[in-house]
Design goal:
heterodimer; A: mainly alpha; 0% strand; elongated; B: alpha+beta; 4 domains; six-stranded antiparallel beta sheet; four-stranded antiparallel beta sheet; 10 strands; 62% helix; globular
Chain lengths: 154, 699
Amino acid sequence: MRKRLLHIALLCVLAVPMLGAGAPSSRFDAIGHKLMCVCGCGQVLLECNHVGCPDSDREITELRNEIATGLPDAGVLNWFVAKYGPTVLAAPLRGGFDVVAWIVPFAALLLGIGIVIFLIRIWRRRNPPNVPPSGPQSPLESSLRDRIREETTY
Amino acid sequence: MLHPMPSFGSFAILLALALCVYTLFSGAVSLRALAVGRQLAVPAEALRETSRRAGIASFIAVSCAAFALIWAAFTNDFSVDYILHHTNRDLPSLYKFSALWSGQEGSLLLWAWLLSAYGFVMRIRDKADVTLHAYASTILSAIQIFFLLLLVFAAPPFAIAAGPLHADGFGLNPLLQYPEMVIHPPMLYLGYVGFSVPFAFALGALMMRYPGEKWIHITRRWTMVTWLFLTCGICLGMHWAYAVLGWGGYWGWDPVENASLMPWLAGTAFLHSVMMQEKRGMMKMWNVWLIFATFMLSILGTLLTRSGLVSSVHAFAESDIGYWFYAFLLIVFIVCLFTFLRQRDHLRAENKLESLVSRESSFLFNNLVLLAACFTILWGTLFPVLSEYVQGSKVTMGPPFYNRVAVPIGLFLIFLTGVGPLLAWRATSLRSIRRNLLLPCLAIIVSAIVLMATGLRPWNEADGSTGAIFSLVCFSLSAGVITAILTEFLRGANVIRNQTRKNLLSSTLLLTRRNTRRYGGYIIHFGIVVLFIGVAGSAFNQSRELEMSYGDSLQIGSYKLVCQSYSQDSNANYDTDYALLDVFHNGKKVTQLAPERRFYNASQQTSTIVAIHSTLARDLYVVFEGRNPETDKPIIKVFLNPLVNWIWIGVGFVIFGTAIALVPPLKPATRRAEALEPTKAPRLDSETWALPVTKSTNA
């Protein structure tokens, strides 16, 4: 069992380098999916499908131009924020208070898990579980118990 | 000028309001008198019965109002402002019917009508417990009063249009002129409104300090059916978005979509944790607050869409109606909190959790993760408002936020879906964990290796997106969960097979029929996993856009599209631009697709009708985006979306599993035999095996 757990852990460790950085050629796609179309359609810039959309074509051209100037990703995004305001970003990425948006859900989940573990430990301490009678069980008893468990669980 | 039908509808709403007010007050007075033993001028039981009957009559009154609005739509009564703005003469009959929920006033009337219909069914089926039903009926009437007040004062559906009578209406929003739109909103509303019933029972049971858990048994089917309606409503909405909006996706994390998902998640948590209360008398406070929260989230969702608090492409224009919802939500919260504080000693748990590794704790963690997902969505929906308050500027919470935050939580949930059912109640031994988890863990590892070997290598993704890694984890976990579910079926079926000497299939069927709730639940889990697999496929979507003339071709993946022709058509309702495209797969013609773009004359709006060639492995999704004004040639956008069909198949399994779980379980023959021979002591052989057990599990 321990070996198996080790294998799973190894797989998880191996998964980390999979989150490698993107190649420069795909920057257009990556940044384009971090921006919104500003026409009010509520769609990500590269997914806006309105023919004749007054904004998306212009934004896409601007995106190509800004990437061509050699600005880093953050610089391109900042350029768009400066021109269109923070709502042009598809997610809050400016740092500062925006970070709160990303942290709070995970913090709430971790806090919840912590509270549950804490409560279970307290309850266990207050109400020690009934210890089953010790001593070896006959094979019949063991199979009987297994089958009872099979049948009584949801 | 006389307006007989609108007047009839308005009076019907007023009558329903009067009847609901009577139901509330007579119900409250009679129940209070019965609780404290006070004598009234009329017997309290008789007063309670009149309250019930008034509630039933209110259903008839609201039905009349709904009928009047539909009648007005079918008879083109453009003197009614609502009909003027949401229909036109050439609108097909099907969509005239759906005009009932196409606008704010109509959808509020639909809400009131569905609530009265639920109340009607509940009130005529009050034999299980008359007093508890009377409490629930009184609470439901209070909710109904709120919606009827809205219809009378804030959003009257029968308001007369100002100015001269119009010859034709302004038409229905083209996006709503799609067959699914005829059933999607009622399904969604059946889900939203339906949670009022378990909420009313829970609050009523708490008010009257209802002994035991019978209220849960009474409401179990209500909750499950409501949950099923909401599930179907959400999925129909997904399918509608996929087939009509033409952006290649089915879920855009729009606030209105989020609003439907939040009560679904809370309701799902309630359906799970309520089993703990039934089985072990635990988590009573938690359950009560879960169903309160589910109901309040349903109302919050409506508030979000109608108040203009958050911007959404689906939302109705900002209106004063939001203040009504704020007030109602506040009142509901105060009533719930007050009742809870007064009666909280009634909710003491009979047992405590004994182990971190047990079925109970898995339910608790499952609840925690579901609520974390719900909170994340609520947080994402409301963060723009918070940001504006703190920073002075709104932000957008689009798909990148949810994909990074909600998806990992969803994956954790899949993991728990697989592990939870394998743990025993109270505590699970290491031996049992090892035995039960061995195969699922192997399935996870093997599937991960196979997927990586066959080309799913997230580290090769050029844009460094997390989609591929999440998909790999999702596919692997799904393999583990499916293995766990199949193992559970096989293990149970083998026991039956040994007992009855039937074949494996018959044994599996018998097993399912003996414990429909448990195995129906497994089928639902299976459906959810299949749905997740479908969603994970979206990480590998491809798209291409091309201006296509006669004979032009477009290659995407292994598909080639060749433009055969493009033309125009028209009927009384709309004009159509369409293209005819031959589709070749690996060089062989498989189908012809005809994506359309329609221009609706009445509303002067356009809409796309997507053409989809669907297989189990992928969807070829073709959109006619319009014509290039300079060349007049059609612009075609093509998406190759893997595994989308798995989503709809998964939903099918969820529906099937819920239907199974709703069926009463089969009583084993041994139990009937014992009833015939009551004095006979049960034998400890295989024939009597299910006797004491089935009784407890299927309670």
